[in-house]
Amino acid sequence: FRQQVLEQGRSRVPLAPEASRRLGTLHVHILDSSDLPNTDLTSLTDPFVKLQYGSVCRRTRVVKDDCNPIWEEIFHFEVYEKDEVLEVAVYDSGSFGSESLIGSVIKVDYDKFSKIRKIW
């Protein structure tokens, strides 16, 4: 987002993101997945979902040894820029903190989302 600046006499004081013009809140509900490929050699996949919205990164918990995981987790992102991109990716959690990408979706069209939201 663009950081707004408030003029105070001769000094310029940057405003916190909360003080910027917020467009709304994006709520993302990660439900489940099915038939994920098994990427582990010795056990089943240990999947988790990583969400990146602008500079904010969130992730679900790891579901151990399950190619059909159920997460049922909700995430909230403050929206300040209409053109911000949401990236959702599913990873396999490996040994010693390693992560293997299983698949991803990049970009949510904010205009379409906001129109759909108004209908609901």
Please compute the radius of gyration using only Cα atoms.
19 Å
Secondary-structure class: mainly beta
Strand content: over 45%
> What overall geometry do the principal axes of the alpha carbons give?
elongated
Number of E-type strands: 8
Q: What's the main sheet like? A: 4 strands, antiparallel
- The residue fraction in helices comes out at under 10%
The number of helical segments is 1
Average pLDDT works out at 78
**Runs with pLDDT <50, length 5+?**
1-14, 116-120
Cα distance, first to last residue? 27 Å
Q: Name the assembly state.
A: single chain
Order of helices and strands: EEEEEEEEH
Topology:
Elements: E1 5-8, E2 11-14, E3 24-32, E4 47-53, E5 56-59, E6 70-79, E7 86-93, E8 99-106, H1 110-119
Antiparallel strand pairs: 1-2, 3-6, 4-5, 4-7, 7-8
Describe the structure in your own words:
By secondary structure, the protein is mainly beta. Helices cover 8% and strands 45% of the residues. It contains one helix and eight strands, in the order E-E-E-E-E-E-E-E-H. The chain has one helix at 110-119; strands at residues 5-8, 11-14, 24-32, 47-53, 56-59, 70-79, 86-93, 99-106. Strands 5-4-7-8 form a four-stranded antiparallel β-sheet, with no helix packed on it. Strand 7 (86-93) and strand 8 (99-106) form a beta hairpin. The longest helix is centred in the last third of the chain and has 10 residues, at 110-119. 11% of the residues are buried. Mean pLDDT is 78; it is low at 1-14 and 116-120.
